Amino acid sequence: MFAPILEKALARAGGGDGLEPLLPTPRPAAELAAVSDDRYLSDMCRRVFRAGLRHGMVDGKWPAFEEAFHGFMPGRVTLMDDEELEACMANAALIRHWAKIRSVRANAAAMRAVGEAHGGFGRWLADWPADDTVGLWERLARDFSQLGGNSGPYFLRMVGKDTFVLTGDVVRGLVDNGIVGKKPASRGDRRTVQAAFNAWSAETGRPQCQLSRILALSVG
């Protein structure tokens, strides 16, 4: 049952008035579908470059990235040749990390393929079932570059697709409540966690992003 977890979070947050403002709200499916692929590619790449760096520093450089990568239009970025990517490594306005620079072109190609097959990347995200969030993580990690680990879930959180995130506090909450015995590393463990979030969502009517935050707040 999720009720005892919610009670602990409420106690730590000072009641409902303190808790509710801390909870994220996912975008409705229609809004996800309406976002253009270039904006999704921009956010995806920004998430990749944020990994291991101060977010504010990356965000401050993002206008230069928008210019260097042609507004993140997937079709145009896919056509960038190695020489053009190498020129980005000489651009002091950018973050000059070769693997991440190369991932922009790879992710543009992957996003273009998904968009053409599903009527837009946003439509594909919107249609992905909420009860298989970990399947979406796996698909992002498999088909896109630099989106393994928590990068895929954090990208989904950035763009408003409902997801839980396996932060340290969330993992601790899962262990404390007997869902798993340790950090979910295997596919089976992640499916076990998914089943727990599905049950909690059915019980409470809350989206997974809110359940995830409440679980984290219940332990720290």
Which SSEs are present, and which pair or pack?
Elements: H1 3-13, H2 16-19, H3 29-34, H4 37-50, H5 55-68, H6 74-78, H7 82-89, H8 98-118, H9 121-127, H10 133-143, H11 151-159, H12 168-176, H13 187-204, H14 208-217
Helix pairs in contact: 1-14, 4-5, 4-8, 4-11, 8-9, 12-14
Can you summarize this structure?
The protein is mainly α and 220 residues long.
Using only C-alpha atoms, the radius of gyration works out to: 19 Å
Largest sheet report? none
Tally of separate helices: 14
Q: Structural class, from secondary structure content?
A: mainly alpha
The amount of beta strand, in percent, is under 5%
The CATH architecture of the largest domain is: Orthogonal Bundle
In sequence order, what are the helices and strands, one letter per element? HHHHHHHHHHHHHH
**How many distinct beta strands?**
0
> What's the number of domains?
2
Q: Determine the CATH superfamily of the largest domain.
A: Hypothetical protein, domain 2
How much helix, percentage-wise, in residues?
Answer: 55-70%
Low-confidence stretches: none
Global shape: elongated
CATH topology of the largest domain: Endonuclease III, domain 1
